[in-house]
Design goal:
Elements lengths: L1 H15 L11 E4 L10 E5 L9 E6 L10 E5 L13 E5 L5 E6 L5 E10 L8 E5 L5 E6 L5 E10 L19 H24 L1
Antiparallel strand pairs: 1-2, 2-9, 3-8, 4-10, 5-6, 6-9, 7-8, 7-10
Helix pairs in contact: 1-2
């Protein structure tokens, strides 16, 4: 009996392991990724760990960033108003050296899929800007590695399709186990019961 039921248990674990869904998601992203030795590195750390799948590097480069294809500028910070975006949807704070701070985003009706761009003072050390895909996060911290402080930050988003706009912070839908998995597990359980019954019958 022990051998039969053990085989069933091991087989069930082996079957379920590859299809289990992890609920933890990385909340830190760097740009460029991978970083290049001697280059400037931008980093964000979202403060909403449950916002899957976490931020990612969308683009980086020299000079000023261009509006990504398919996106619109939602807001942009300005030195004259303490890094609150001109439309109020993007709020940036920064340390005295301009190399770190926080960001907070207020979603805008009719838009989704937010990107945030950070532009450093040009120091001839690529990249001068980094754009991050937020993937559901709406707040967090940012840093620039040691060369020139923040010049400005820009918030981009895509217009919602005519069918409607997804909630920017909706968690991903649960992935159900396929029906054949349940059938296989039922078969394994039946084998275990049959092995136990045979064992008792021979005693």
């Amino acid at each position: 009996m022990w051998r039969t039921t053990s085989i069933a248990a091991v087989a069930a674990i082996a079957l379920l392991a590859p299809i289990s869904i992890s609920s933890s998601n990385a909340a830190i992203a760097t740009c460029p990724n991978p970083a290049v030795a001697g280059s400037r590195v931008f980093t964000i750390n979202t403060t909403e760990p449950d916002a899957p799948p976490g931020p990612s590097c969308f683009a980086s480069g020299a000079g000023n960033e261009s509006t990504p294809a398919g996106y619109a500028i939602i807001d942009k910070t300005d030195d004259s108003n303490a890094y609150v975006g001109v439309n109020g949807e993007l709020v940036i704070t920064q340390a005295a050296d301009g190399l770190s701070g926080t960001f907070t985003i207020t979603p805008v009706a009719g838009f989704f899929d937010y990107l945030i761009a950070f532009k450093s003072g040009e120091g001839q050390l690529d990249p001068d800007f980094a754009i991050f895909a937020l993937n559901g996060a709406l707040s967090g911290t940012w840093t620039i590695s040691g060369q020139q402080g923040l010049s400005h930050a820009t918030l981009y988003a895509r217009a919602c399709p005519t069918a409607g706009c997804p909630d920017p912070q909706d968690p991903p839908a649960a992935v159900p186990l396929p029906a054949p998995v349940f059938m296989f597990l039922a078969t394994l359980l039946s084998l275990g019961v049959y092995g136990w019954w045979r064992r008792r019958a021979t005693v």
